[in-house]
Amino acid sequence: MKRTIIAACAAVLAFAAASSAPVAQTPAHDIKYVQAGRLLADPSNGRVLTEQTVVVVDGKVSEIRPGYVGGADGEVIDLHDSFVLPGLIDSHVHLLDELRPENRFDDVTMSEADFAINGARFALVTLKAGFTTVQDLGAGDGGDAILAIRDGINTGKIPGPRILAAGSTITPTGGHADVHGYRDDILHVMARTSACNGPDDCRRATREQISRGVDVIKITATGGVLSNTAAGLAQQMTDEEMAAIVETAHRMGRRVFAHAHGLDGINAALRAGVDGIEHGSFLDATSIKLFREHHAWLVPTLLAGDFVMREGQAGRLLPAQAQKAMIAGPLMIDATRRAHEGGVMIAFGTDTGVSAHGDNAQEFALLVRAGFTPLQAIQAATTMGAQHLNLDTVIGRLNPGFAGDLIAVKGDPLTDVRQLEHVSFVMKGGAVYKR
Known about the structure:
Layout: H1 2-20, E1 31-39, E2 49-57, E3 60-66, E4 75-86, E5 88-93, H2 106-109, H3 112-128, E6 131-136, H4 144-154, E7 162-165, E8 171-172, H5 184-190, E9 195-196, H6 199-211, E10 217-220, H7 239-251, E11 256-260, H8 263-272, E12 276-279, H9 285-294, E13 297-299, H10 302-313, H11 319-328, H12 332-341, E14 345-346, H13 362-369, H14 374-380, H15 383-388, E15 406-409, E16 425-428, E17 431-434
Parallel strand pairs: 1-4, 5-6, 6-7, 8-9, 10-11, 11-12, 12-13, 13-14
Antiparallel strand pairs: 1-2, 2-3, 4-15, 15-16, 16-17
């Protein structure tokens, strides 16, 4: 009997202890109901739905429901008067700076910290313009600032678009991404560690960029418009150097994108196996064949060509820059038209930083001038852009499981693509950055 009483008391105490223990709480989910008057959820099919609700849970699209629905468990976002589509992708930007007369002195007056402050500001401007993902193709020597911005955005410390970064551009000594026009002793101090000479040295430069944590490799196969040297726009990097870079990068899991204006450099880079060409101003029928054979992408950067041509005409470029701008700028629309008609895979990219950050969407109208329909131009900045960046299971569509990246405009961009220059709402990863 005594043992029974003791056992009963122990049971009561155990029950009391269990009752007073804290009950595990199910974490609250961040739910948003985005009610869209018109919705282009998957630009690849061009199907526009009306009166739909995109349900975003913990930063990802959960489902799309017909009608305007909501719930007490989440925030309702009223976009009944808007056209909603996935967040835009710009595959060629330079976030750390913006073209201005003082650029020539930046390398000797600004620190990496200064560039990082610039980049953080321009990243937010870009995001608010509707670009929720960008690829930064070339920063200063070492590329520390852009990598820090990328990582700061990824960890939620600062706002900005998702960034893939190339770090410092790999260039031949004296090439487009090197330093020009200073005294020899100044040039020695400012020499790029990413400048290389010969296949072995270019392997070294590639490995160094990868060791710093870059996502992709950027090379300058040809001369460029804004380098302050009268070196033209033809091939500058040798075939052997490009082949060494591509082989090294691919072995280490990185893709290679080549700045290339001149025909010889375009075709040599494609034969070397690069994954994409930036600009492509002088491409020809052989280039189009090589693009298709090598499954390579073209990022036309029509906005940059149009912008530098206007700057050159207005006398706001240095003489060596202006001469090249007047050659390359007028060619780019036609080159893009021929590539598009020839079946080349084309992704949206602007080279912004040449033009002003936040003006990225001006590229859409230029793509339409080059023969794209408005839908095809949007695809270049969504589904095709995602495929180009190898992120097509993450962004570019508003399918269940994809990132909650979406934007809205008031008009219909399928009839007037310039509506995308006036984005009224931006969400990235379920967080609202512009209303």
